[in-house]
Amino acid sequence: MRNRVSILDAVREGKNSFSKKEIAQATKIPWGTVCKCVDSLLKEEHLFIRRFEPTKRGRPMIPMGIDPDSAFFAGFDVGASSTRLVFCDLLFNVKYRHEIRTPYYKNNSAFFKWVLKMFSDSLKEAGIDKKKLMGIGFSMSGNVDTERGILVSGRNWGVKWGANIPVADILSEHTGIPVFAVPATAAGVLAEYHFGKWKGYSNIVTVGLGAGIGSGIISNGELLITQPHRPIGYIGHMLIPDNNHICSCGFKGCLESYSGGIYLPLIGKEEIPEQPELHSAAALDLAAASGHAKAVAIMKKAASYNAVGIASMIQLYGPDVLIFYGGQCKKDGFLFNQTLKHVREILPQERLNLFEIGLTTLGDYQAAMGAARLAYERFF
Ligand SMILES: [Zn+2]
Predict the structure, then answer these.
(1) How far is the CA of 250 from the centre of ligand 1 (A)?
(2) Do residues 75 and 62 both lie within one domain?
(3) How many angstroms separate the alpha carbon of residue 90 from the centre of ligand 1?
(4) Do 248 and 285 lie in a common domain?
(5) What residues pair up with 216 in beta bridges, in sequence order?
(6) Which one-letter DSSP state was computed for residue 72?
(7) Cβ within 8 Å of residue 179, ≥6 positions away
């Protein structure tokens, strides 16, 4: 991580009152570099000196704080059904949040017109000085080439494979602000690492059970970011031997082509054609909970598929915590609880003893927060 980012992280963690000496101890950055960086952060007015506190012995401690209003970061999260936007200040207080429905993708001009309007309307409403907005993190549901800032595909909202939309370049050209494009799974797990209940855990696996099924990974304190041809955390596309359904990716047998929230209605249609009222993921879940035999069978199968993917992530990454998020993760949901049950059955007890399991505490703005954090890490 860049020194100035690590230094402000340390001050923030130090209850926003930290001396150079405390910064050097916390960051392990050499003393000379700390002094140089702190001086420039003071000059740029991102840091300010709190009142002087004389100590009995040794070097005087001069506590410094971050001026939260000296810089802002935007975090977008374009999901398959909703798009969220947050503006965070330099202390990562959320100053503004907004959510609207994601329109089904038609073409680039309509898409960018819509994004830019949401951005400028929100900026105005939030009353944030654009000059202080230092970066935009742009998280998307789909395949993102973060190295080139390109959205390769977002099938769940209509962007076909190979669309290759240069999102970062176009948005930064129109806003005049640097943009970092990132897949939602990576943004979400980074938000957990910095802002969630299990903040600071070095090894985190998130599993999103929603329209599709995805996973994010923090390993040894590092965010792993998936690339189109180097997929990371793509548990939704693990191939399940006895699944004959065709996935939107083109392969047969992907986990999410049965268990994903947008596929379950199709399974319902296949298995229970006589009850159209059950052709939605939510209705199937409720029917299964009340003992409807066919719904139970569908959801148990979906849960067993989910569990194969999740248990594999645990085997591969040995997390300290497994965090669930997404529309199908309801505390009292049938599919969710069956999934947990299967995961516990598959994994040996000594493995289960090594990690916690929980639900995200960050709500719907998880990925948007992570995107804002990524903008800060890249552009501050
Ligand atoms: Zn697939």
Answers:
(1) 6
(2) no
(3) 39
(4) yes
(5) 206
(6) E
(7) 135, 136, 137, 138, 149, 167, 168, 169, 171, 172, 375
* Cβ atoms 224, 261 nearer than 8 A: no
**Same domain, yes or no, for 239 and 263?**
yes
Residue 287 Cα, ligand 1 centroid: separation in angstroms? 27
Give pLDDT tens digits for 293-308.
999 999 999 999 999 9
pLDDT exceeding 90 applies to what percent of the chain?
90
Same domain, 292 and 234: yes
| Domain that residue 114 falls in | 70-190+365-379
Total structural domains in the chain? 3
Domain of residue 36, CATH code: 1.10.10.10
Cα–ligand 1 centroid distance for 309 (angstroms) = 13
**What's the 154 CA to ligand 1 centre distance in angstroms?**
12
The pLDDT assigned to 373 comes to 98
Instruction: Give pLDDT, residue 162.
Output: 87
Range of weakest confidence among 53-57, 205-209, 367-371: 53-57
Please tell me the distance between residue 230's alpha carbon and the centre of ligand 1 in angstroms: 15
pLDDT of residue 51: 74
Residue 251 CA, ligand 1 centroid: distance in Å: 5
Å from CA of 347 to ligand 1 middle: 24
pLDDT at 220: 97
Please give the distance, rounded to the nearest whole angstrom, from the Cα atom of residue 152 to the centre of ligand 1.
15
Q: Is the pLDDT of residue 369 over 80?
A: yes
Same domain, 119 and 62: no
How far is the centre of ligand 1, averaged over its atoms, from the C-alpha of 215 (Å)? 14
Indicate the pTM of the whole model: 0.94
Instruction: Tally Cβ neighbours within 10 Å of residue 64.
Output: 21
**pLDDT above 70 for 55:** no
Residue 7 shares a structural domain with residue 142 = no
SS3 219: strand
In a domain, 104, yes or no: yes
Say if residue 48 is in the same domain as residue 147: no
Give yes or no: residues 230 and 320 share one domain.
yes
